[in-house]
Amino acid sequence: MSDGIDQILKPLTIGIVGAGRIVEDVHLPVLKNIPLVRISWITDVDSKNRKRVGSMYGIKDRHPDKVFSGPEEIDIYLLAIPLNARDNYLRSIAASGNAAYVEKPFASSAKDHRDIISHFVSGNIFSGFQRRFYNTAQTLKAIVDGGEFGRLHSVRAFQGSYNLRSNFMRAWGEDQKRYSGGLVMDSAIHILDQILYALSCKKIRSVSADGIVHGGVDYDVRIKSILTREDGDVEADCRFSRLTNLGDRIELLFDKARVECGLQPSDPVLAHSKGRRVRYQSSFSFGRYFAAKTVNQAFAYNWMDCIRSARNGVAAISSAKNSILTSEWVEEIYKCL
């Protein structure tokens, strides 16, 4: 990706479906700072909230029933609404021939994932797995692809935190029932996607999982899987929790080294080999920009990747066809719980 941002982008118009926190706090600030992008309108079933967010960013609010009846030509639709509210929007966008950027989770099963993609004959449908652009994920991928430490045998991932605020867990659980479904679907899915991306996995051969589930919401999950790469199988051992602190990290075990990093985009990637510890840095770049070291940078890169592909037809890291395995892994995990 050697083109500069001025060559990547052409003028285009975006329509936003959903006025939740991820749109208010991240998507809108990012889009407002990408040159030659115009946000036409924002819609949400919560009229008070869509008017508030629209007013905050100087964007027209539109009633959900009138999303496809306006005179504007929308180039890319951002869908940031729950899974069970997307079908009609996706079908209408696909029929229009325009592009869609779909927030995670993209789908609850591999079959649904493929079905959604199949309606977009142009291939212009993208997923919100922007953590692929994290410096940590790009560096891990470079190390795995480089083969410096021999064969990769296993990967481990941990994410866990417990919040002591009064009623926090109760409120979080209620939110999950309404929107995502649980810890794996809400946040751990990003880490699973980073693993599949960094390891260039071709298949998920087996999955076992157990955990603490209450009221249909998973709060603590242990997962053991066998992932298949071109050079063989890799064991994956993961634990995600809302009930205990775990020390957030990803670890890769090779023949000749153990490589580890935290989950934040700017965390160092360290290789422990032969009694030495070496810090690694990705050489990945997006135009004149390097791998993302902040969350907002990652969102910006995912958007630029999506825009470039929608405009010029080039391959995109964010293409929804590249995250089918992520939906499959999550589906298999929930079958076990």
The average pLDDT is 90
CATH architecture of the largest domain: 2-Layer Sandwich
Radius of gyration of CA atoms, rounded to a whole number: 20 Å
Q: Give the count of helical stretches.
A: 10
What is the number of beta strands?
16
Distance between the termini: 41 Å
Q: Quick one: biggest sheet?
A: 8 strands, mixed
Number of domains: 2
Order of helices and strands, N to C? Answer: HEHEHEEHEHEHEHHEEEEEEEEEHH
Can you tell me the residue ranges where pLDDT is under 50 for at least 5 consecutive residues?
A: 1-7
How helix-rich are the residues, as a percent range? 25-40%
* Sheet with most strands: strand arrangement: 8-9-10-7-11-12-13-14
Global structural class: alpha/beta
Structure, explained:
There is one protein chain. This protein has 337 residues and is of the alpha/beta class. It has two domains: 5-130, NAD(P)-binding Rossmann-like Domain (Rossmann fold), CATH 3.40.50.720; 131-292 and 318-336, Dihydrodipicolinate Reductase, domain 2, CATH 3.30.360.10. It is 35% helix and 28% strand. It contains ten helices and 16 strands. The protein has helices spanning 5-8, 21-31, 47-57, 87-96, 110-119, 135-146, 168-178, 183-199, 295-312, 324-336; strands spanning 12-17, 37-43, 60-62, 76-79, 99-102, 125-127, 152-160, 203-214, 217-229, 232-241, 249-254, 258-261, 269-273, 276-280, 285-286, 289-290. The protein has an eight-stranded mixed sheet with strand order 8-9-10-7-11-12-13-14, with helices on one face. α5 (110-119) packs antiparallel against α10 (324-336) and α6 packs parallel to α8 (183-199). The chain is globular, with a radius of gyration of 20 Å. The model is unreliable at 1-7 (pLDDT under 50).
